[in-house]
Amino acid sequence: MEIKIKYVRDIKPIDVIENGDWIDLRAGEDFTLMAGDYRLIPLGIAVELPKGYSAIIAPRSSTFKKWNIICANSIGIIDESYCGDNDEWHFPVIAFGNAKIHKNDRICQFRIIKKEEPIEFIRVSILGNKDRNGFGSTGEN
Predict the structure, then answer these.
(1) Which of 2, 93, 109, 132 is the most core-located residue (most Cβ within 10 A)?
(2) Which residues are catalytic, by number?
């Protein structure tokens, strides 16, 4: 699959990894956050996703450990219509401690997914399946 990408900031190019499905994204500038701060971190790219696809942006597994930040929305969703020359991707974060993030730090990752096929919900009174016995019912270990 070929995807058009425009670098709207002077950052290191994105590397496609050979192992795994997620691609790292970099901070587009240096900045400092204080505990409690909210910030949209510019990621330095605008992308034209293929028709019928969306992107999911999520923190890297080390993001909180390194910078005390979490994604404010849990994940970010970018659909194919966000594809203009100035539609720069951002990562919305909340700081739980003071953080200094440098331009080109790999702070989040994304994956491209195919859009959901059309769904029709059919109302029923009984599903007819075995119950799992509640939320978190897979056990302790």
Answers:
(1) 93
(2) 79
